[in-house]
């Protein structure tokens, strides 16, 4: 467990070295969302309709931008080999990196999403469900993205594998996440979508750290 | 039986046999030098020993128990230093070292060797930094280190947490003569405390009583590239 | 140390001379401006008391733009004549400019709610202020993203120049975009002829804000220079210690 | 010129060897765009209305995924130093990298956009202008993005920082790009928008390689 | 006046003076060795010489013309090999080398040195690979090279395109004795053809007639760090 916390601590520290790094995820999120009015035009009705979709796409993208480096740096500088031969289960190491990623990316996204809601004139009643769905969704994205990042280390064909495997996994998150918010706006309960997201999270919690571990061991070899 | 052994080891990298039928044994206090020309498989063998890669054939045994049975138990007893330095440019020198110490502290065999210094991890880190001459630079970001200073930081890793087995891949690279002297002293102290060492090197490490494995001798016959190198005196470290 | 720390002394001497004057001017002008704004000037017949927001809103809008121009000029001076103090001034001005932008955005929002019934519309002018704010953020983030301060200041100077070229283009394209899409229903910002009872406090505030900007830039630049000197001394000491302890 | 083509060749070859990066950009583009029908509901009118905007914004955001690596690898492995001291003007070197980036990212985006047009039920008459505007727009994005990548080289979290620098600068591209398609759909000529995009491209061709060169020299130092 | 010179050079890294008041001169056929302990500024000086960084003070002159006047003309006459290998793992060995050859071929001074081999670039590449013993591996992806093989590939770069000035930062790192021998031979041939060499190294390169600059002697006074190292025999390469 020592190693677990050391790793979470190190990764968050590298990310937080200056507070501006975490701020940056938020700012990116805001800017990316603000681009849509430029593309689609400034009509409030239209924007409000698109708001849930825009929110989720930009959140996913912001997360995607951060996966690139999740394991790559460790792979390049030889840290990965040392992680693989650390005296703790490798899935725990992987989980530590995922937790650190969520803390430095998922959490800021979660905190920023109401701001974007306001900019896009999102229905006020839907904020509660938005936050809940976002919490589940960002966690799933961190888990699945980490698996993707681990798979894409090293080998060449894995890149294709990555897009075939990981991105389809993220689609349900987008659909049910945006769906949950839409449901509330439409006056329905979002329980079903939230339950599905919860279920997905459970499944990912079981599969992804393990998958990461296998992929990392392969990559180090 | 105490010690570190391997029998019948073979290594295949991208469909080519790098070496085969290789045996080795190191007993407590012992040292083993791997020599051989570039590409002969020194690093590959060390990676097998460290458990990063698994051998295509053969078995590695730690204290009488095959490593593959309980790898984590073995990992806790060992340090590996590869070609790459695993130093994070954004962290300070001390943070880098503290991270590795915590990572290996997981189940680290605190009582397994007499070179054990204490249980106070911060003290250990300071002592290790001091030992490699980096103490005054402890709070600089590692990005500002020169090549040799970075290598020193890597070596501080093995001094910060005790472990009976050191696997060192060309540890002297980029070091100046003074740092090499310190490394020699550290190795001697480690061995005096019952520690074991396997090191690959292209330059003499000055461990006179070490056993040597010449990787070129274990290459499959087809590979004539390195065939005529095995008997050259310059390789150093031969007993 | 070498040339990098040679010329700040002249800058510091000048700054120390200017600072007391600028500070007192700031206090007097803003004080008088506030007095006229809240006491002596009338409420608007259409907008009521909310019109007083204008005396903060409009000067900060001007300052937001002025500060960016200042940064661009300082960056150019820093890049072309390699004058280190110019970079320091640009860096010092950035957060201040960003603050003015935020003030303009928030006062505008606060004003917009009673006037238009919404905090935000994608109006051309509003949008270009928002983009300006993003440019500020980018500049600040880039300047602080490196361990090596010299690297950050040069990189952000390039960004400031490119941004300065782009700003008019953005402004123009946003205008164009907005007139294309925007339904005419949204109230246009704009005022009929400005009465002098409003113009005087407005101008007082504007000059006062400019002096405030000067004061803040000087204070921040001084602090930054002092910080660098400390860092230089510290790193010299670290390496001197390496000396004693040996390698 | 020798070095110019060598660099373009090397970069495209590396990108083709590890297809993952290119794939990732395209797949993200398709998925992000495909999300909106889910978020907004499948009404053809509404979708068609938003299609140009969505297309442009998602293309831009997808391109963001690729800038991170543009100079980073060269920086990490020491190639950048050698590029800086190559016996050809550094802006030419930068331009070569930009051209390679466009070939491996802009071009695939261009090719994929009709597919997304179909998904979003874009007016059939507008494909010609869409492709033309996209060709100009992706080139500008490559140029500005490269500048951002060069400026943020060696910083922490460069992926997100980069988008913070680049996105505000490319807003005009977005406006005129989506505007061109909108114009055709509305029955007007898009000449004006295309001319402006062309002008922007010219301006960027002058400014960006120069800025890149200065930034790269700084980064190598 | 032919040759490569520097006067009054100073280097500042993150507000610290690494060295100051340093002069050097190399004339055609000459060699200069930079010595000094880790962190004394060998790499920093080589980067100044190569034009990657610019000196905080002083001037560097190539064939009588300050380098800062027309850097590209100077760049075309020079090879620089740093600590890092600039090898792309995804490309084959030959592709890696061909890229660098093309990059430097831009205005390369084909006739400037007698070690010029020919105008056929592919032939040059094959010959260079053969020279460092990588010819059999030419079509493998560079990812499959060992540390020493990667370093050999880096050195092949300077053999593939001719240039009168070689700036080498610890060229022997990771090389086996055989590759070091070849490097020595290549250096001798280069110098015999009128070429110039500046190399930093912690291990003796065996260039007996080379001038040596001890970086430790040029550290600013506050920095007594490296003061007592300058007269140590182990540093090697002193004339
Ligand atoms: C967040 C929202 C707002 C922003 C970003 C904003 C931005 C600006 C800017 C940039 C200027 C300076 C223009 C120039 O001098 O070139 C300005 C001036 C002004 N604004 Fe706002 N504004 C906002 C909301 C409002 C509202 C709600 C009102 C009142 C209805 C308002 C009234 C004015 C007036 C009266 C001026 C000065 C008139 C002029 O110089 O044309 N603004 N604003
Ligand atoms: N990127 C950097 N930023 C700031 N300071 C640096 C950087 N790189 C090196 N330094 C500092 O500059 C000094 C000289 O470093 P340099 O790399 O030139 O040493 P060197 O003589 O090559 O050492 P080595 O034998 O270890 O390679 C060192 O004290 C180091 O701490
Ligand atoms: N990642 C890899 N994939 C495939 N083959 C590899 C890989 N790394 C090394 N090899 C091959 O395995 C063989 C042994 O490499 P290894 O790195 O073990 O050599 P080494 O003895 O350590 O050499 P050096 O002295 O150069 O470090 C080499 O012939 C090399 O080509
Ligand atoms: Mg090796
Ligand atoms: Mg060095």
Relevant terms:
heteropentamer, A: 221 residues, mainly alpha, 83% helix, C: 247 residues, globular, binds protoporphyrin IX containing FE, binds adenosine-5'-triphosphate, binds magnesium ion
Summarize the structure.
The complex is a heteropentamer, with 2 copies of chain A (221 residues), 2 copies of chain B (239 residues) and 1 copy of chain C (247 residues). Chain A has 221 residues and is mostly helical.
Bound molecules: protoporphyrin IX containing FE, adenosine-5'-triphosphate, magnesium ion
Main beta sheet of chain B: strand number and arrangement? 5 strands, parallel
Count of domain modules of chain B = 2
Tally of separate helices of chain A = 9
Distance, first to last CA of chain B = 25 Å
Oligomer: heteropentamer
Report the C-alpha radius of gyration of chain A, rounded. 18 Å
Major beta sheet, strand line-up of chain B: 6-7-8-3-9
Unreliable segments of chain B (pLDDT under 50, ≥5 consecutive)?
Answer: 106-118, 223-239
Number of strands of chain A: 0
* Mean pLDDT rating of chain B: 82
Number of strands of chain B: 9
Please write the string of helix (H) and strand (E) elements of chain B.
EEEHEEHEHHHEHEE
Number of structurally distinct domains of chain A: 1
Class of the largest domain in chain B in CATH?
Answer: Alpha Beta
In the predicted model, the low-confidence regions of chain A spanning at least 5 consecutive residues are: none
Q: State the end-to-end distance of chain A.
A: 25 Å
Global Rg of chain B: 18 Å
Write structural notes for this entry.
The complex is a heteropentamer, with two copies of chain A (221 residues), two copies of chain B (239 residues) and one copy of chain C (247 residues). Chain A is mostly helical. Chain A has one domain. Chain A contains nine helices and no strands. Chain A has helices at residues 2-16, 20-40, 44-67, 72-76, 79-84, 90-119, 127-151, 158-185, 191-220. Chain B has two domains: 1-77 and 164-173 and 193-239, P-loop containing nucleotide triphosphate hydrolases (Rossmann fold, 3-Layer(aba) Sandwich); 85-162, no CATH class. The longest helix of chain B is centred in the C-terminal third of the chain and has 16 residues, at 177-192. Chain B is 28% helix and 22% strand. With 239 residues, chain B is α/β, with parallel strands linked by helices. Chain B is built from six helices and nine strands; from the N terminus they run βββαββαβαααβαββ. In chain B, strand 1 and strand 2 (16-26) form a beta hairpin. Chain B has helices at 42-50, 71-75, 93-105, 121-131, 147-160, 177-192, and strands spanning 4-13, 16-26, 31-35, 57-62, 65-66, 78-81, 165-169, 196-200, 211-214. Mean pLDDT of chain C is 82; it is low at 1-6 and 182-188. Chain C starts with 7 loop residues before the first helix and ends with a helix. Chain C is mainly alpha-helical and 247 residues long. Chain C has helices at 8-40, 54-81, 84-116, 124-143, 149-181, 196-245. The radius of gyration of chain C is 22 Å and the shape is globular. Chains in contact: A-B, A-C, A-D, B-C, B-E, C-D, C-E, D-E. Chains A and D meet through helix 2, helix 3 and helix 8 of A and helix 2, helix 3, helix 7 and helix 8 of D. The structure holds protoporphyrin IX containing FE, adenosine-5'-triphosphate (2 copies) and magnesium ion (2 copies). One adenosine-5'-triphosphate (ATP) sits between chains B (13-14, 18, 36, 38-44, 215) and E (143-149, 174, 176). Protoporphyrin IX containing FE binds at residues 54, 57-58, 61, 104-105, 108-109, 111-112, 115, 125-126, 129, 189-191 of chain C.
């Amino acid at each position: 467990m020592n190693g677990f916390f050391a790793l979470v601590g190190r990764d968050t520290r590298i990310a937080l070295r200056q507070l501006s790094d975490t701020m940056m995820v938020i700012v990116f999120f805001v800017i990316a969302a603000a681009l849509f009015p430029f593309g689609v035009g400034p009509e409030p009705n239209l924007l409000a309709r698109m708001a849930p979709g825009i929110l989720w796409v930009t959140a996913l993208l912001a997360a995607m931008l951060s996966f690139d480096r999740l394991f790559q740096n460790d792979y390049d500088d030889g840290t990965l080999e040392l992680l693989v031969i650390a005296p703790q289960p490798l899935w725990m190491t992987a989980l530590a990196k995922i937790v650190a990623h969520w803390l430095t990316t998922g959490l800021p996204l979660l905190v920023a999403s109401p701001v974007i809601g306001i900019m896009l004139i999102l229905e006020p009643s839907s904020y509660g469900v938005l936050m809940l769905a976002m919490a589940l969704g960002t966690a799933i994205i961190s888990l699945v993205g980490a698996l993707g990042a681990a798979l894409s280390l090293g080998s060449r064909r894995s890149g294709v594998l990555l897009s075939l495997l990981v991105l389809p996994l993220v689609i349900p998150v987008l659909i049910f996440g945006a769906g949950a918010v839409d449901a509330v706006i439409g006056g329905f309960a979002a329980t079903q979508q939230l339950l599905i997201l919860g279920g997905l999270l459970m499944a990912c919690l079981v599969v992804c750290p393990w998958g990461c571990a296998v992929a990392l061991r392969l990559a180090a070899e | 039986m105490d010690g570190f052994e391997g029998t019948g080891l073979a290594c295949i990298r991208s469909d080519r046999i790098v070496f085969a039928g290789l045996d080795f044994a190191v007993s407590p206090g012992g040292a083993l030098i791997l020599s051989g020309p570039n590409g002969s498989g020194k690093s590959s063998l060390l990676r097998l020993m460290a458990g990063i890669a698994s051998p295509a054939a053969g078995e590695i045994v730690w204290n009488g128990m095959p490593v593959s049975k309980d790898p984590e138990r073995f990992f806790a007893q060992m340090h590996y230093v590869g070609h790459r330095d695993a130093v994070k440019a954004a962290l300070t020198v001390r943070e880098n070292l503290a991270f590795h110490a915590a990572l290996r502290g997981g189940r680290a065999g605190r009582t397994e060797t007499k070179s054990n210094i204490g249980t106070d991890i911060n003290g250990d880190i300071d002592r290790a930094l001091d030992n490699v001459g980096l103490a005054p630079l402890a709070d600089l970001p590692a990005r500002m280190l020169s090549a040799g200073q970075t290598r020193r930081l890597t070596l501080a890793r093995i001094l910060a947490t005790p472990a009976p087995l050191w696997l060192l891949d060309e540890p002297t690279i980029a070091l100046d003569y003074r740092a090499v002297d310190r490394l020699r002293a550290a190795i001697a102290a480690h061995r005096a405390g019952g520690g074991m060492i396997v090191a690959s090197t292209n330059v003499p490490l000055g461990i006179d009583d070490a056993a040597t494995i010449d990787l070129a001798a274990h290459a499959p016959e087809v590979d004539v590239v390195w065939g005529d190198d095995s008997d050259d005196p310059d390789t150093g470290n031969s007993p | 140390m070498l040339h990098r720390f040679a010329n700040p002394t002249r800058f510091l001497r000048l700054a120390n001379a200017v600072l007391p004057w600028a500070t007192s001017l700031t206090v007097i002008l803003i004080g008088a401006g506030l007095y006229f704004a809240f006491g002596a000037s009338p409420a608007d017949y259409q907008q009521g008391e909310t019109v007083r927001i204008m005396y903060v809103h409009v000067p900060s809008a001007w300052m937001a733009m002025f500060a960016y121009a200042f940064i661009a000029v300082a960056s150019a001076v820093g890049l072309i004549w390699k004058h280190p103090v110019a970079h320091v001034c640009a860096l010092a001005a950035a957060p201040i400019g960003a603050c003015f932008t935020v003030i303009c955005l928030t006062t505008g929002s606060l004003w917009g709610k009673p006037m238009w019934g919404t905090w935000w519309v994608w109006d051309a002018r509003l949008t270009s202020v928002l983009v300006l704010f993003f440019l500020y953020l980018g500049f600040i983030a880039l300047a602080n993203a490196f361990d090596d301060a010299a690297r950050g200041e040069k990189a952000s100077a390039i960004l400031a120049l490119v941004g300065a070229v782009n700003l008019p283009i953005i402004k123009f394209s946003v205008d164009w975009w907005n007139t294309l899409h925007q339904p005419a229903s949204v109230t246009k910002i704009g005022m009929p002829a400005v009465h002098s009872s409003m113009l005087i406090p407005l101008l007082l505030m504007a000059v006062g804000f400019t002096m405030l900007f000067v004061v803040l830039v000087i204070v921040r630049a001084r602090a930054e220079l002092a910080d660098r000197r400390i860092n230089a001394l510290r790193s010299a000491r670290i390496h001197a210690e390496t000396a004693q302890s040996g390698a």
